[in-house]
Amino acid sequence: AAAAALVLALLTSNSFGSPAGALRKFEKGDFDAARQEFERLLERHPDDTRLHYNAGAAAYRSGEFEDAAKEFGAALRAQDMQLQQQAYYNLGNSLFRLGEPLAKPEEKIETWEKAAQSFESATKLDPQDADAKYNLDVVRKKLEELKQQQQQQQQQQSSKDDQDKKDDKDKKDQQKQGRRNGTATG
């Protein structure tokens, strides 16, 4: 699910942009420009969790999932429980997206476990959030599949290693037997 921008009520100078202007850019689909404007506003109001959330929403929509996760993480300090819940939800989405392209199963598992924790936190703050519950279920299933895959690969590797050891031992035994019988070995 796409991150939704919140309406901001801040007084700022035009040199730093305005929350309304950034929101208009976001709504028009100009996510990079909206993000830049939210980031300029953050220079002036670094503790504003709404700005962090909105910068995260713009980064997410731009496909910049690492930056989105950072901004949603900063928004978790919000006193507003609804904003905090949405930040957890969107942090989970960002982390899931970050994990998708990872090649190493251990890294993917670690990232997706963090995504699951974020969705769990979102559902604790709003038990009625069906999207957070659904995403939590999806991530848990993906994690289970990935862990099973990893376990199968480890078992296959272990079987292959055992077979290689057996083959090496058999070859050495044949070489010893060949020397005892006075035959040439290859």
Please render the helix and strand layout as text.
Elements: H1 19-27, H2 31-44, H3 49-61, H4 65-75, H5 81-99, H6 105-125, H7 130-180
Helix pairs in contact: 1-2, 2-3, 3-4, 3-5, 4-5, 5-6, 6-7
Write structural notes for this entry:
With 186 residues, the protein is mostly helical. The protein is 74% helix and 0% strand. It has seven helices and no strands. Helix 2 packs antiparallel against helix 3, helix 3 packs antiparallel against helix 4 and helix 4 runs antiparallel to helix 5. The longest helix has 51 residues. It is elongated and about 85 Å long. The relative contact order is 0.08. The N terminus is likely disordered.
What structural class should be given to the helix and strand makeup?
Answer: mainly alpha
Summarize model confidence as the mean pLDDT. Answer: 83
Series of secondary-structure elements, N-terminal to C-terminal? HHHHHHH
Q: Which sheet architecture does the biggest sheet show?
A: none
Distance between the termini: 64 Å
Strand content: under 5%
Helix content: over 70%
Uncertain stretches: 1-15
Radius of gyration: 26 Å
- Mass-distribution shape: elongated
State the helix count. Answer: 7
The number of distinct β-strands equals 0
